[in-house]
């Protein structure tokens, strides 16, 4: 149990053809692998999360929860390009001995999955009983299921889709415009673009929640105010909180990776036909108030995955509901895993 780092000294070729001289993958494990090695649950995390799934998904990855370390051997790996221990802009380039910073190459969701597979092989895991992920984590689950179909038992997907939408790409582009407008962005330091990252997070928060959430929770009771509004303070706080724990260069790389997501890219067929090839029992959860990756995207998956079950949660939390609605999600997931 706890965090580990797998260090591969074998060159790692990205989908673009660029070669990383070596690869580091930070990962957490929880629970114990059973005798037949058949109790693996692999959790794929979203944009700014890390490999500590118990930390960011309490109530789901938890003792007594549906993904219980007393039942499963749980693995969560930090994604390629992140700033939480895996190879990314802040790690040292073996070829130069200095951090990559802006020279870290573009990565795709498929590159992230290729790194996950390398870790799976290192750990001697042949089968994954449950592969789970929400939002960008769901992108990884779908690509992994297509890459290693026979190794995946069940899938659990929340607030995700078969391809990044034009809406999502537009949001990410606006966020990157905010980062690049920061005068410090081109500096070769960990702090480069920090003010821009704060603005990017502010843009993101508007899509992670929704109109109803902000009106309900951030409306000022003082009708005489002309400045220093509660909603403004909340957005400032959220931006500052991310800057303290994340990195603008990683945010840039990972948002670009999200834009690249399209399971049909390069496969000479359409998404519907590809989904039809996946035989896994699959639980899909959508959140009615999600405006970033709305239920229509999960309904498309449900319509084309042969053995899918779709459930929709009525939550006021929008896209962030997949991280917040532990109790509602837990009841649905526990039922699915008991089948």
Describe the structure.
It is a single chain. By secondary structure, this protein is an alpha/beta fold. The chain contains twelve helices and ten strands. It has helices spanning 53-56, 109-123, 136-147, 166-180, 194-208, 211-218, 230-245, 248-259, 271-275, 295-304, 321-324, 326-338; strands at residues 2-8, 12-13, 19-20, 23-30, 40-44, 73-77, 128-134, 152-158, 282-287, 308-313. The chain has an eight-stranded mixed beta sheet with strand order 1-4-6-5-7-8-9-10, sandwiched between helices. A two-stranded antiparallel sheet has the order 2-3.
Mean pLDDT: 97
Backbone structural class: alpha/beta
What proportion of the residues form beta strands (DSSP E)?
15-25%
What's the total number of strands? 10
Tally the helices.
12
Strand order of the largest sheet: 1-4-6-5-7-8-9-10
What letter string, H or E per element, gives the SSE order? Answer: EEEEEHEHEHEHHHHHHEHEHH
Q: Which geometry do the CA atoms define?
A: globular
Q: Which parts are unreliable, with pLDDT below 50 for 5 consecutive residues or more?
A: none
| Percentage of residues in helical conformation | 25-40%
Task: Describe this protein with a few key phrases.
339 residues; alpha/beta; 8-stranded mixed β-sheet; two-stranded antiparallel sheet; 12 helices; 38% helix
Fold topology:
Elements: E1 2-8, E2 12-13, E3 19-20, E4 23-30, E5 40-44, H1 53-56, E6 73-77, H2 109-123, E7 128-134, H3 136-147, E8 152-158, H4 166-180, H5 194-208, H6 211-218, H7 230-245, H8 248-259, H9 271-275, E9 282-287, H10 295-304, E10 308-313, H11 321-324, H12 326-338
Parallel strand pairs: 5-6, 5-7, 7-8, 8-9, 9-10
Antiparallel strand pairs: 1-4, 2-3, 4-6
